Amino acid sequence: MAEILDGKKVADAIVEECKSEVGRLSLCGITKTLAVILVGNDPASAIYVNNKKKKCEYIGIYSKTYELPEHTTQEELLALIHRLNEDLHVDGILVQLPLPAHIDENTIIMAIDPAKDVDGFHPASVGALSIGLPGYVSCTPAGIIQILKRNQIEIAGKHCVIIGRSNIVGKPMAMLMLKENATVTVAHSRTSNLKAIAKSADILIVAIGKPEFINRSYVKEGAVVIDVGVNRKADKTLCGDVLFADVAPVASAITPVPGGVGPVTIAMLMHNCVFGLE
Fold first, then answer.
1. Statement: residue 72 has pLDDT above 70
2. Mean pLDDT across 197-212
């Protein structure tokens, strides 16, 4: 049976490191401030923002939350981002996604100063990652690296297969694994012979967005399986993109859903805000 990779345990360790650093900085008269912007009334987004506010409060980060109505125009949102870019007291800016349909997400992401892009979504942040320069790294891929390293899972020399090519997870994940000296294959919905490719992985990272899609026939005996998916089933319970009960007996280690990658993603957002560009 696979070792269960406890994301909450990893997240708690990262949060405590952030809290310690904030305490050290406060002795020097330095305060860290995160500006969070929520547009509209999406219930899931409101929960995420509230969770981030609670983490900020615990760590000692000053959180400025801007809750804007659904009808906020793109121009109004851009004006707020510009003010926050210019505010020397704001260390990080986070715009909660998704945005209402009338607002272009790419335009908003590109408006954020890369020096305050704690989500790591700005093209400048992604470009810096691709060529090894300092920059913010998207929180989910950065968190996955922490899960692997803090569980003493060897990355260098291993074959990593990433299923999913999104700008938020798949692409930056591939670059991070290359940085850690893995051999990387990126697969996706149009990949031929996906099962055979997945089964060649020493480390299989699944972010395909299909509930419980990956079963044991996709997984090599002894592989490490990281499940990025978060899906809600008909009975309202959460599940990942991996059929956990089927895969766990053949994997050497696996992340659960919930309690795996999710908590570490929020912890890495706090890390980005506290420790800045790395």
1. yes
2. 97
Catalytic residue among 6, 117, 119, 202: 119
Task: Return the CATH fold of 29-114.
Answer: Rossmann fold (3.40.50)
Q: Average model confidence (pLDDT) for the chain?
A: 96
**CATH 3.40.50.10860, the chain: domain bounds:** 29-114
Is 74 in the active site? no
96 annotated active-site: yes
User: Domain 139-262 carries which CATH code?
Assistant: 3.40.50.720
State the catalytic residue, choosing from 6, 32, 52, 146: 52
Q: How many angstroms separate the CA atoms of 110 and 278, rounded?
A: 20
User: What pTM was estimated for this model as a whole?
Assistant: 0.95
**Catalytic residue at 52?**
yes
Among the listed residues 6, 32, 91, 96, the single catalytic one is: 96
